[in-house]
DNA sequence: CCTTGACAGATAATCGATTATTTGGATAGT
DNA sequence: ACTATCCAAATAATCGATTATCTGTCAAGG
């Protein structure tokens, strides 16, 4: 058995190919790396919603050739972050009130359903993963002044929600939830750099997680639904205020 | 230089299911056309589930270059019909009992939810579309001896189910349902060339549609759920019998 | 002044060739 | 015999250049 160097994500050297590293995991091809970079650029708001993606400029910006660029963009289409039309190219998916509301509603339906299934059939390892994800999340500070803490918090937050439903044994459902989470996170990162004053998000997460491992189906599902709903409401308000739609 | 076309080149405008399409195309690029051809090949079972897709062979089979081939395959990944791994290429998604059951369960959840929403907010035009889709479907014969009737029936059947939920005003949800329908249709086309004897599928569709336009929420949803469930059960039985899984 | 059509620049799609990676099999060492 | 290592064929990824398509502009005709 190979020691699986887990731990914190090692900062990948900018351009260091395989030479000495024997543990080169996932992101091997340029296309894959691009997909990650583009995804981050879109979710973080660096690439504005609705804007056109000029292949030539993108090619120069990222110092890659067309083929891997298209490859990367193709994956973001699967993620719902990029749209495409024949002969007309790619553009960053638009945001809108209706879109946000749909995402929220679908998260309430799907994530809650997945949580229920997880509680129904999840095993002890799942419980452990949930508690770990909760702990890491609540131990991570979220300081709007330091962007790197935001990014880290976002990562752990996403991880927490996915872990929560990871016991459901339904890969397609997990895939759907993952997409919705992606879409939702973009709204939060663009419009919400801090938590609304009247919420204690850490406590909300704790309540959900503890209800989940205690297999208190109705309680946990209700907490999760409210959690999602509150976030949706907050986002809607900020979108209405700041957004120029 | 002109790409020489061997005999297989069919008139590309042939399969125009666009009910209202005065603008003929949409399938402009080679990549788009390939996506359609590959999708049909997979759903119909021509390309066996789980099999590897050799790019070189596929390139020759379809008389295209690598770029559009990858383009087309990328779209099928979005559809869940093809899987991909870095440096290891593409393969047709596997089928399994668990996969079938998940698809069925998710269809029951999502399609029924979408139907309810459609009945709640769908307009008169939606009602009309439903009735038209129902009529076309029930007027189309399904003769296992003539494959072209099967294809046509499948097309109308898919169209019916999508139309039924098209009034819900939720594009992402519709997208999810469309994917699930794709995945489900593959099972049916591989394992069920005719309807189970104890079912009257036309009547089932009629009941759903009429309940829908009558806005009888609970009735229509219940009928749809049963309809999906029965299909799932039938498929499971055939899969257990014929399939070597 | 408005419409129509043609031209040119911009942009996307595709190709053929090249480079990188994986995989299976042969070979050498224990 | 068994394992590890290295090679070569197969396969995927990437590149640079070419071809096809679109889009805006401008001039001619009504």
CATH superfamily of the largest domain in chain A: GntR ligand-binding domain-like
Which parts of chain A are unreliable, with pLDDT below 50 for 5 consecutive residues or more? Answer: 1-24
Write down the overall mean pLDDT of chain A. Answer: 88
Assembly form of the protein: homodimer
Instruction: Give the SSE order of chain A as H and E letters.
Output: HEHHEEHHHHHH
Helix content of chain A: 55-70%
Annotation field: number of helices of chain A: 9
Q: What would you call the structural class of chain A?
A: mainly alpha
Task: Describe the SSE topology.
Two copies of one chain form a homodimer.
Chain A: H1 30-43, E1 52-53, H2 55-62, H3 66-78, E2 82-85, E3 89-92, H4 97-121, H5 124-139, H6 147-164, H7 171-191, H8 201-213, H9 217-242
Antiparallel strand pairs in A: 1-3, 2-3
Chain B binds a DNA duplex (30 and 30 nucleotides) through residues 1, 3, 28-31, 54-56, 64-68, 70-71, 86-89.
Your description of this structure?
The structure is a homodimer. Chain A has about 240 residues and is mainly alpha-helical. Chain A has two domains: about 30-90, Arc Repressor Mutant, subunit A (Orthogonal Bundle), CATH 1.10.10.10; about 95-240, Four Helix Bundle (Hemerythrin (Met), subunit A). Chain A has helices at about 30-45, 55-60, 65-80, 95-120, 125-140, 145-165, 170-190, 200-215, 215-240; strands at about 50-55, 80-85, 90. In chain A, a hairpin with a 3-residue loop joins strand 2 (about 80-85) and strand 3 (about 90). In chain A, helix 4 (about 95-120) crosses helix 7 (about 170-190). The radius of gyration of chain A is 19 Å and the shape is globular. The interface of A and B includes residues 71, 75, 102, 170 and 172 of A. The structure holds a DNA duplex (30 and 30 nucleotides).
């Amino acid at each position: 058995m190979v020691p699986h160097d887990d731990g914190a994500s090692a900062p990948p050297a900018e351009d260091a190919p395989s030479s000495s590293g024997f543990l080169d995991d996932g992101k091997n091809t340029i296309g894959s790396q691009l997909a990650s970079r583009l995804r981050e650029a879109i979710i973080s708001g660096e690439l504005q919603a609705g804007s056109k993606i000029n292949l030539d400029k993108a090619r120069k910006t990222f110092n890659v050739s067309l083929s891997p660029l298209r490859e990367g963009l193709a994956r973001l289409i699967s993620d719902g972050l990029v749209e495409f039309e024949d002969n007309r190219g790619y553009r960053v998916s638009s945001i809108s009130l209706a879109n946000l509301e749909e995402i929220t509603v679908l998260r309430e339906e799907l994530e809650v359903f997945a949580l229920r299934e997880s509680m129904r059939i999840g095993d002890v390892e799942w419980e452990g993963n949930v508690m770990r994800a909760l702990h890491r999340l609540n131990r991570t500070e979220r300081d709007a002044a330091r962007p790197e803490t935001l990014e880290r918090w976002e990562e752990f937050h996403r991880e927490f929600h996915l872990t929560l439903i990871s016991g459901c044994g339904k890969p397609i459902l997990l895939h759907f939830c993952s997409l919705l989470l992606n879409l939702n996170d973009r709204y939060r990162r663009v419009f919400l750099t801090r938590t609304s004053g009247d919420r204690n998000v850490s406590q909300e997460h704790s309540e959900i997680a503890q209800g989940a491992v205690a297999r208190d189906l109705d309680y946990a599902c209700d907490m999760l639904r409210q959690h999602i709903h509150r976030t949706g409401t907050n986002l809607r308000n900020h979108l209405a205020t700041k957004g120029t739609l």
